[in-house]
Amino acid sequence: MEQNKYSLVIVGFGGMGSYHVQLIEPCERLAVTGVYDVVDYRLELGAAKGFKTYDSLEAVLSDETVDVVLIATPNDVHKDIAIRALTAGKHVICEKPVTVDSADLSDILEVAKETDRVFMVHQNRRWDEDFLIIQDLIEKKKIGEVFHLESRVQGANGIPGDWRQLKAYGGGMLLDWGVHLLDQLLLLTGSKIDSVTAELSTILGTEVDDGFTSFIRFKDGLTAVIEVGTTNFIKLPRWYVKGTEGTAIIRDWDLSGEIVVNNPDVAKVEPKPIQAGQGLTKTMAPPSEESTLRLPIEKAQSTKQSFYDNFVSVIEGKSEPLVKNEEVHRVLRLIETIFEAAEKRAVLKDLEL
Ligand code: NAD
Q: GFO/IDH/MocA-like oxidoreductase domain: from which residue to which, for each copy (predicted)?
């Protein structure tokens, strides 16, 4: 440690690895000092930014000035690098999905325990503003008791054309974006999961899923649709949430959306029938303007990204990790359950999850 800062080396200096440099900048107690990548060009980019470059992982791990290894390689090698780094006495931050299955994560955690090193997974989308708004809305019961939610990310550009298309690298959208949406979902309820069913999308003909739709029922009755798509020329909303007193929608990353709730000060007004196609309907008429309130999506209280500060605090024994390894392990078990449900075309019930 130099000047009261932990020295951190990024292993895998690609898209996300280089983005970490700017994310870590504001953290007063962590300094990116070096990079290692298997591609020379990526090392040259690191050198151009003034970082020390290493020509092997062994060189990183035998450098006693290095305190922390941050893993931002493709998913298949996270486990090996993590175990070697922990064994060499380094603390580790690992990108998501931490591993391609939950047994691999258990192996890493065993080594972290034996070596008494901190191992934390970068589940950064826990600090996304759209998620924080939904979390706040549920906690404060702004639309009553939430009984159903739908969380989606959709694009029209297919799977980025590299390792994400290949099974051997831990590719596919369930492991890539699914891990974020499922991590967020499990933070929205304290309930255990009751049942899971799912369908993987393979429209693009890749050997991995180009998206998926899953339907998850919790033991407390909450139901959720979690969906990732890469073949959607028109998107569905990012969030659609139904509660006993209203409905909330967040359409996109720009946080456009609205909340419609029963007005507690006005007695319910019977809706008037509307013309719908060739018929009239009262059932499908919008709620009356008089007895409902239309509220804007309000900014969340705090969106400060505190992952790295927390990591340092955990190393120093001052805080509990904000991303707990048990939570990450549960998300991986849910992903395995989704793969199994899709393969069997079944509703998997009586889950210990
Ligand atoms: P990328 O392909 O842009 O970068 C990966 C880099 O790792 C490349 O430069 C590659 O040469 C290097 N590499 C490959 N094998 C290596 C090895 N054995 N040792 C050292 N370097 C190696 O991929 P990316 O989009 O940056 O994704 C990297 C990781 O970050 C993945 O796990 C991905 O899921 C994750 N990621 C997370 C987020 C997030 O928001 N948390 C966003 C994007 C990617």
A: 134-248
